[in-house]
Specification:
Structural class of chain B: alpha/beta
Largest sheet of chain B: 6 strands, mixed
Strand content of chain A: 5-15%
Radius of gyration of chain A: 35 Å
Structural class of chain A: alpha/beta
Helix content of chain B: 55-70%
Shape of chain A: elongated
CATH topology of the largest domain in chain A: ABC transporter transmembrane region fold
CATH topology of one domain in chain B: Rossmann fold
Number of strands of chain A: 10
CATH superfamily of one domain in chain B: P-loop containing nucleotide triphosphate hydrolases
Distance between the termini of chain B: 67 Å
Shape of chain B: elongated
Strand content of chain B: 5-15%
Helix content of chain A: 55-70%
Oligomer: heterodimer
Number of helices of chain A: 20
CATH architecture of the largest domain in chain A: Up-down Bundle
């Protein structure tokens, strides 16, 4: 649980996001105030008009109230329209501001943290939290300010007649604007949290039941799952009954307080009218004024709940963007080596993940990939193969030992410089919601059309792209054309070719592909590796005879090393891995 | 549409009716409150009454304010009850029906959509029932009720209301459909832009690898801004309907007030009545305005309800027999015979299996081989009654499978899928799924037999380690062994096992084949084989190709015939393995 102080701090940090929009917010709040006041004036003036007409026989005397009544309709409609448009403008500007800020804070965290968060919904959550925060203005700040403004105006108008009336109205406005939402929050907070937890459990139950349905049905668990859901629904129902009582109470009390406010003002005004301290022609005017003022109070009921959501979203957001980066740039970066082929060396590298409970991931790893050579890292899953690559990319720094590129410790290079030297293809190729051209140009923004087609050709994807109706301009990614696993990987290979980096890091490139596709893709990979220093991680022992050296990793240590034939002849782990693999039947 | 939803949820009818009634009674209380208010004001204003003279009326006013608040509470409470009952009932119904529809209906991408229907869809239905439905009744009945009340007070005002009342919905629909067109025109672009931020964040790792993370910041800002401008352009029209409604309402109030004033001057109407009419006019428009704010909820609820009806209308894949037969099979292995079985998936032209006949002899192990898409999984789906055969018959110990209820039949089958699903809960719970009544010792014994005991004991909390969605990640080999433990625990007379198609680490491989050997002694086994050893050890091999059974027989015998598909499959494997040293090839 977070302390009160940190909540306050979060609130202030969130409000700071609004600072660039102060002027617009002031205008919007004024318009919101105008909107409510217009309706107050319309109704109260209408009441005054009728009362006046009842005692004066000349319509001329009523021309001002008539004019006001007519004008206010137009003013209110215009104010409402302007207020909604402007407030949404502020909201979207705020959203843009939030996104840029979050992005600016998030970017240096990558890639170590991003890699940790890539699976799971941390990032999706982050984005929906940012979306949630755009409501901070629309649903929290604006209603509170408008309500305050209207309260002040109402009390001022009433004070012209009599201070006591103003105080009575103030009392009820405050009670229903502040006291009631706080009461409702108190009544429902525990229930709401319980409901949220229960809903989460129901959700997991549903997701698992649908995804694991074969297992469930095969083991005759359908009835049990149905009953489990019914039991949770019953608990949810009981909770919701209590929430309904509280929710209804809030609405009921709101009505009660509005009625009481009008009643009290009347009760106080009648003796004043009897003693002629107030002209009794204004009685209706006063009652209408107070009645209409409560329009500004009603949205506050939701504002408090929304504030809770915003604060929670803000806390999650800050927790993520306040994370310190895992690695940082050196003060004086070394000049980038310009050679077309570079040597990569690990010297006695030892590494473990920071999180508690993690065993040693890599222990005393030493090896060298000479310039232009191909080295493969193989071994059972969980051996630490991919970690090795991520260390070369400087996601993290090793606790012991060094990694050398062209004889220099990689910590000496600028992070962006270092990654510019490396072409990377992994098993999870991320494609942006962009065209094929856009996704390729990521690697070389100024690449010409001709260059694009050349790399597509090498990656054996040119025929495929050519037969697409929009060619290079076909949208891919989550909302675009669904590419098959093989096509995605070819695109990744084309992208790496376009980057034309001297060092190549390949991480289980064919892991999610069927074996026919895997075979075909290997030819494209082979062309990519031509003339480049390559470090290849794989658990599939395919074309291993083309490697200059193979390192067999098990439990974070190099247990065997050598060329394919040597390792087979040794009859160790490599041999066993190879046999297991070759005992598989072709499935594709 | 509304009635159809309520037909499913009888429990919601009464609270809904109560809510509607309370809303109408609350309106009558409002009329009473306003009548008293105008009476009191008229008495003080024109009759110069003092507090004592209007005292009883003020007390009555207080009582009616309290009564109104109570009715509002009842209205809200019952509406919420109705909503949550519908939600809960609908979710249970949908869930139960999905379990009947089986895994083939929910598989793949559809499971995400179905979970969304069960979660957000049901929430929308709740809002629809709790907010939109009663509001539609009120927005029809309340204006009419008020017309009836206002008519005797003032014909002219009633006439005015009668004329302006229908204009508002008509105008709103006109403006609404106009803006709807604009909204739709922008929709594709909007959707693309709003997804962009998540896309950028999720792809940040890739951006880093290409040194493009800095350049994207300006892109985020530019796109967010574009999003704002485009959305505002749409909202400019969408907000018009609100402004028009506001203007019309205010105009009508103003108009009626001025008319009332003129007639008051001419003494054509008493003040008290005129004032009451003025007080009641806003109540006339209020339900229509609130219906406007619920419009969105109404649309969403309707869309969700339509999808729910579609799901509920889907037919279960297998029909239950008219009169159930309870077979008297013991735990002894079963003989399964397929006779000329043909079947196809819904919406598919080509049969998934065509005229397939074979026998799984009691106590024997049959290996099923074939490339992917050959019909292996289809056969498993048929045997588990997840889908229906088109023609032919499946006999179990001579009894046709369709004469047994599916649930009952599945009690005789144990399934070990290729990707077993782990449910949230402990490892122990997950094994116990197979037999909920099993003791801890039995669970551990099953794990022992499945070769899973060793790795389970090494888990942080042993058998009590939490697994599932958020839990621990297990390797494919470990998962398979857990699923085997389920099978050992269930001790069913028929075992269906789908071997992992990828190579596991050598240790898992050895443990798996040992466990399978143990299982074979107890039951009839059908294994979808991906390993040579598994096939070689089987009593019988079935080779499927494009839905046809092309071959069956003893593995050793088939290998001798050079024309056999099985023998060809073996040769293909050796070719795929690549450069196999001569000596190794013989050894295999």
């Amino acid at each position: 649980m977070t302390s009160k102080r940190s909540t306050t701090r979060t609130a202030w940090r969130l409000l700071a996001f609004l600072r660039p929009f102060t002027l617009q917010i002031v205008v919007t709040v004024l318009l919101g105030g105008v909107m409510v006041v217009a309706s107050m004036l319309l109704l109260s003036m209408a009441a005054y008009l009728i009362a006046g007409a009842a005692i004066v026989a000349m319509i001329v005397l009523l021309s001002i109230p008539i004019a006001i009544v007519r004008l206010m309709g137009l003013v209110r409609a215009a104010a409402r329209y302007g207020e909604r448009l402007l407030s949404h403008n502020v909201t979207f500007r705020l959203l843009a501001h939030l996104r840029v800020t979050v992005y600016r804070r998030l970017a240096p965290l990558a890639p170590a943290r991003l890699w940790q968060w890539r699976s799971g919904d941390v990032l999706a959550r982050l984005v929906s939290d940012v979306d949630e925060l755009q409501n901070l203005y629309l649903r929290v700040v604006a209603p509170v300010l408008v309500a305050a403004l209207v309260t002040v105006i109402t009390c001022w108008l009433l004070a012209i007649f009599n201070t006591v009336l103003a105080l009575a109205a103030l009392f009820f406005l405050l009670i229903s604007g502040l006291g009631l939402p706080l009461l409702a929050l108190r009544l429902t907070r525990g229930l709401g949290r319980e409901q949220l937890a229960l809903r989460g459990r129901v959700n997991v139950h549903l997701v698992e039941s649908l995804q694991g349905m074969s297992d469930l049905l095969a083991y005759g668990q359908a009835e049990q799952r149905r009953e489990q859901l019914a039991a949770w629904e019953r608990r949810l129902d009981r909770l919701q009954q209590r929430l309904a009582v509280a929710g209804g109470l809030q609405e009921g009390l709101q009505e009660l307080l509005t009625g009481l406010a009008v009643w009290s003002v009347l009760l106080l005004a009648i003796p004043l009218a009897a003693t002629s301290q107030i002209n009794s022609v204004y009685l209706g005017f006063l009652a209408m004024l107070v009645l209409a003022a409560f329009e500004a109070i009603t949205p506050l009921a939701q504002a408090f709940g929304q504030l809770g959501h915003s604060l929670a979203a803000g806390e999650r957001l800050f927790r993520i963007i306040d994370t310190p980066p895992a690695v940082s740039d050196p003060g004086q970066p070394l000049p980038v080596p310009t050679s077309r082929s570079l040597e990569l060396a690990f010297e006695n590298v030892t590494f473990r993940y920071e999180e508690a409970g993690h065993q040693l991931t890599l222990a005393h790893i030493s090896f060298c990939v000479p310039a232009g050579a191909r080295v493969a890292i193989v071994g059972p899953s969980g051996a630490g193969k991919s970690t090795l690559l991520r260390l070369a990319l400087r996601f993290w720094d090793p606790q012991e030992g060094r990694i050398l590129l062209a004889g220099q410790d990689i910590r000496g290079f600028g992070l962006a410089d270092l990654r510019r030297l490396m072409g990377v293809v992994t098993q999870e190729t991320y494609l942006f919601n962009d065209t094929i051209r856009g996704n390729l140009r990521l690697a070389a923004p100024s690449a010409t059309e001709e260059q694009l087609w050349r790399v597509l050709e090498v990656a054996q994807l040119d025929d495929f792209v050519r037969q697409l109706p929009a060619g290079l301009d076909t949208w891919v990614g989550e909302q675009g054309l669904k590419l098959s696993g093989g096509e995605r990987q070819r695109l990744a290979i084309a992208r790496a070719l376009l980057k034309d980096a001297p060092l190549l890091l390949l991480d289980e490139v064919t892991a999610n592909l069927d074996r026919l596709t895997e075979q075909a893709l290997f030819e494209a990979l082979d062309r990519l590796m031509q003339g480049r220093t390559t470090l290849l991680v794989t658990h599939r022992l395919l074309h291993m005879e083309r490697m200059d050296e193979i390192l067999v990793l098990d439990g974070g240590r190099i247990v065997e090393r050598g060329r394919h034939e040597q390792l087979l002849a040794q009859g160790g782990l490599y041999r066993r891995l190879w046999e297991v693999q070759n005992a598989l039947l072709p499935v594709a | 549409m509304e009635k159809q939803i309520l037909r499913y949820c009888t429990a919601a009818r009464w609270p809904l009716a109560l809510s509607v009634l309370a809303g109408l009674l609350a309106l009558l209380a409002t009329v009473g409150q306003m009548a008293l208010l105008s009476w009191v004001i008229a008495r003080v204003f024109l009759g110069h009454a003092d507090l004592q003279q209007v005292g009883p009326a003020l007390i009555a006013l207080l009582v009616i304010i309290g009564l109104r608040a109570a009715l509002v509470w009842l209205r809200e409470f019952s509406a919420r009850r109705a909503g949550s009952r519908v939600k809960s009932e609908m979710r249970r119904r949908l869930f139960a029906h999905l379990l009947r529809l089986g895994p083939l209906f929910v598989r793949g991408e559809r499971s995400g959509e179905l979970v969304a229907i069960l979660n957000e869809g049901c929430e929308r239905l709740e809002t629809y029932v709790a907010r939109y439905l009663p509001q539609t009744v009120w927005s029809l009945v309340i204006p009419l009720l008020l017309l009836v009340i206002i008519w005797p007070l003032d014909h002219l005002s009633a006439m005015l209301l009668l004329i302006t009342g229908p204009v508002i919905p008509i105008l709103m629909i006109a403006v609404g459909s106009y803006s709807q067109k604009h909204i739709q025109r922008q929709w594709t672009t909007l959707a693309r832009l709003s997804a962009h931020f998540l896309d950028t964040i999720q792809g940040l790792l890739t951006l880093h690898l290409f040194g493009r993370s800095g350049a994207q910041e300006a892109h985020v800002a530019r796109l967010s801004d574009e999003y704002r401008r485009r959305t505002l352009k749409v909202l400019r029209y969408a907000f018009l309907s609100g402004a028009v409604l506001e203007f019309m309402t205010m105009l009508a109030i103003g108009l009626i007030a001025v008319f009332l004033g003129v007639r008051l001057i001419n003494r054509e109407i008493p003040f008290e009545q005129a004032f009451l009419v003025l007080l009641l006019i806003p109540e006339f428009y209020r339900p229509l305005r609130e219906l406007g704010t619920q419009y969105h909820a109404g649309m969403e609820g309707r869309v969700a309800a339509r999808r729910m009806r579609e799901i509920l209308a889907a037919m279960p894949p297998v029909s239950e027999p008219g009169e159930a037969i309870a077979p008297s099979w013991s735990a002894a292995p079963l003989t399964i015979t397929c006779e000329h079985v043909t079947c196809r998936y819904a919406g598919s032209e080509r049969p998934a299996l065509q005229n397939v006949s074979f026998t799984l002899p009691a106590g024997a192990c049959t290996a099923l081989v074939g490339r992917s898409g050959a019909g292996k999984s289809t056969l498993v789906n048929l045997l588990l009654r997840f889908m229906e055969i088109e023609s032919g018959a499946i006999l179990v110990n001579g009894l046709s499978l369709d004469r047994l209820p599916a649930d009952l039949w599945r009690e005789y089958v144990a399934l070990v899928p290729q990707r077993p699903y782990l449910f949230s809960g402990s490892v122990r719970d997950n094994i116990r799924l197979a037999r909920p009544g099993a003791s801890d010792a039995e669970v551990e014994r099953a794990a022992e037999l499945a070769g899973a005991a060793d790795f389970i004991r090494e888990l942080p909390a042993g058998y009590d380690t939490e697994v599932g969605e958020q839990g621990l990640r297990l390797s494919a080999g470990q998962l398979q062994r857990l699923a085997l433990a389920r099978a050992f625990l269930k001790q069913a007379p028929l075992l269906i096992l789908d071997e992992p198609s990828s190579s596991l680490d050598p240790e898992s491989e050895a443990l798996l084949s040992a466990a399978l050997a143990r299982l074979r002694r107890q039951c009839t086994v059908l294994v979808i084989a991906h390993r040579i050893n598994t096939v070689a050890a089987a009593d019988q091999v079935l080779v499927l190709d494009s839905g046809h059974l092309v071959e069956s027989g003893q593995p050793a015998a088939l290998l001798q015939q050079s024309t056999s598909a099985y023998a060809q499959l073996m040769t293909a494997r050796l070719q795929e393995a690549g450069a196999v040293p001569e000596k190794e090839a013989e050894a295999l």
